[in-house]
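Chapter summary example.
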Amino acid sequence: MIKKKITFSEIKKYLRQKILSISKIAKKRKNEYLRSSDYSALLKSFLSCLIIVSIFFIIPIILEFSNSQTELTKEFKNKSKNNFNKTLDNKIQNSIVKLDATVIEKYVFDDVLNFEDLPSDTVRLNASTIKQLFKDTNYNLKDVREKKLVKPISLSLLPKEMKMIENSQKRKELFIQIILPLIIEENNNIKLDRIKLFSILNKSKNTKIEVRWLGQKFRQYGVANKDLSTLKVRMDEIPTSLSIAQAAKETGWGTSRFAQEGNALFGQWTWTGEGIKPAGAEDDSTHKVMKFKVLKASVKAYHRNLNTHSSYREFRSARAELRDSGKKLNSMILAKYLDKYAETGKEYVKILQQIIRQNELTDFDDAKLLPSSTDLKSLI
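The structure predicted for these 380 residues follows.
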């Protein structure tokens, strides 16, 4: 056998053919793979897009449904809670109104009438003298608003010149300065009585003096059957700002005939006692505006009127609710329950609230009367 000699060029040619063949096979397989990969990628992309679109379409619907259910639940809960609270408040108010239902009027104003026994030679100071008195004692409303302390200056009569004070702001300030100590003093008297009442209620056994004192207060507040709960509701303060607002409204800031001639600061009516007949009243009308010997008597009668008259039971009930909930006596809230005080009803309430707001009268609700006695000192 003759062996053929293979040249380098033949080997090179052979290898080139083999490499070309392998390259063709690889290229073919690569193309096949790429085609199959393209379909797979396209399918995956389509599915991904479909899922993403579905998610963004469905999620808002789910959220909206969830929110609507939550709001419905909240609304239901809030309404249920409000209804419950409203029902509870109504029950409390109704129970207070029921226990405060009966008034024995026979002795209610006895201590007010005691002022009629005072000497009739009370001196009426003129406006300039009163202003000088306030100046000499450093009594001004700016300090009262800041320091919450009121000088215990008690005037018996309003000055005749109230109408002649043309500057309305100065007239208002003078009027407030005159009646503010009187109003706070009466609230202090009630406050001291209230402290004593609670002291008695906390005892298991009371002394004869305490029993007599209770009997006197039952008469003063017209309480039937010696009901202590009713006495507690009636024996309470009236916000200073509310008292000032009513006095301002009823007297035209101290300029009315009733205030000047009868010291009537709150326009209370009477059908039996001495009074002043309104100028516009009909001839057959029997009511008069109560007149008093001194301003202090008018303030006391006003407090007793709101604290006992059947027309103001809702006022006392609202006040008792504020007390029971540990809140301050709010004149803007309590004014709402004085619609029966005047024939104008709700309009009267709006005017009172407007007077309180415009003159910032709530600044005086926390004011204290500088002590003129040991008992009053304990209230500061």
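To summarize the output: The radius of gyration is 43 Å.
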